[in-house]
Specification:
Two copies of one chain form a homodimer.
Chain A (H helix, E strand, L loop, with lengths): L1 E5 L4 H13 L3 E5 L7 H6 L7 E3 L5 E3 L1 H11 L10 H37 L5 H24 L10 H15 L9 H11 L5 H5 L17
Parallel strand pairs in A: 1-2
Antiparallel strand pairs in A: 1-3, 3-4
Chain lengths: 222, 222
């Protein structure tokens, strides 16, 4: 049985959990708060970040991209990197886009202002930083609308790792009140479709202590 | 013929160039300064980052991880992600380690202090930030020594993408005077081996305008 070290609002752990859900891989979630920098965890992953997966045979997988590629290679069910080499490059480009740019501009600042400051520093969020993140979210939703003007799914004609990476980041930003769907009908329809997948339900049911999501966070009709 | 949009001290472009060199893929380098945020370049890559590769048939590859995976999938010569799925996960973990942590702690700050400040802001580097980066470099060289205590190459028993990712970052940090090899004999031997590969020679011969590397930058006996 795989163990997954993660915390409820980690967007990279959510991406991995969606992959595991789509592929039908069972796992036991293990709560890890990377900001505590626990010695045993740092011994396992010197980068100090979740997600990390470990199994009973001593295999340890570190880094969300490496973990997703591992299960794509070892579980043929629900291919998430399909098509030609160029199609896969486009999917991987978008995974990096959401992992890096969306996280840097939106999910990262929201987690810092609304979670880390509350849990670690006992401080109040900076409203300027929150406004910047919400403005950046609008630009990212515009880009999702643009992609969906040309394609059925974000990465191409089938559901792929790009959709899971995007939905993982958006779900965390949405939990933290950073997403306003107004005038993003296409992106909203796509996200409601993602939310209704069985792989998404366990994530949406989870709560982070002392931080509540908006009332429509779990709803399938936004 | 592929075109590679890059600038001489971009560590991610260097990683891609090493892959192309090892695989024997020809390409024409096209100078792109991403800090200028050229409209035509942003139209091609909304993330605004190099490397980007384009060919005559209209294929555009964006993001260094996606590009490396593309050539690993399409050119069988010189496999850079060999072994079992778990071996490949370990290689990909290390690629992320050097792309993300090494860049964040060392190459990124060095580029900012010694290149961006000079070229864009006409400002002097912050000596505190430079000291921090050089201290972080010692910790990373320690980690490379630790890996080489257990393995012939960073990612396992054969030369892999992990070695190229690490050497690409280190070569930029070295150019910018951020690497001190003292008491890192193992890491130094490994790096001299990387420098002596034919794929490395064109990179070492290149210069960034108005920034000179240390005298031993190209030398094979450090």
């Amino acid at each position: 049985m795989w163990q997954l070290y993660q915390f409820p609002l980690c967007p990279f752990s959510r991406k991995v959990r969606l992959v595991l859900g789509e592929k039908g891989v069972g796992y036991e979630p293990v709560r890890e708060s990377p900001w505590l920098r626990r010695d045993e965890f740092l011994d396992m992953n010197p980068a100090g970040q979740v997600p990390v997966m470990a199994d009973d045979r001593g295999v340890v997988l570190i880094d969300s991209v490496a973990i997703c590629e591992f299960f794509e290679e070892t579980v043929s069910k629900a291919a998430l990197l399909g098509g030609t080499a160029a199609d896969r490059a486009e999917i991987r480009r978008l995974v990096a886009w959401f992992d890096v740019q969306f996280f840097r501009d939106i999910t990262g600042p929201l987690l810092n202002e609304r979670m880390i400051k509350r849990i670690v520093h006992r401080a109040t969020p900076d409203s300027g930083a929150l406004r910047e993140a919400m403005k950046a979210a609008v630009a990212h939703l515009d880009y999702i609308d643009f992609l969906l003007d040309h394609r059925t799914w974000l990465g191409g004609s089938t559901m792929s790792l790009a959709d899971l990476a995007a939905a993982a980041q958006i779900s965390v930003a949405d939990y933290l009140g950073g997403i306003d769907w107004k005038s993003h009908e296409q992106a909203k329809r796509w996200y409601v479709g993602m939310k209704s997948r069985p792989s998404f339900r366990p994530l949406l049911a989870e709560r982070m202590e002392s931080i509540n999501p908006p009332s429509d966070y779990e709803k399938l009709d936004l």
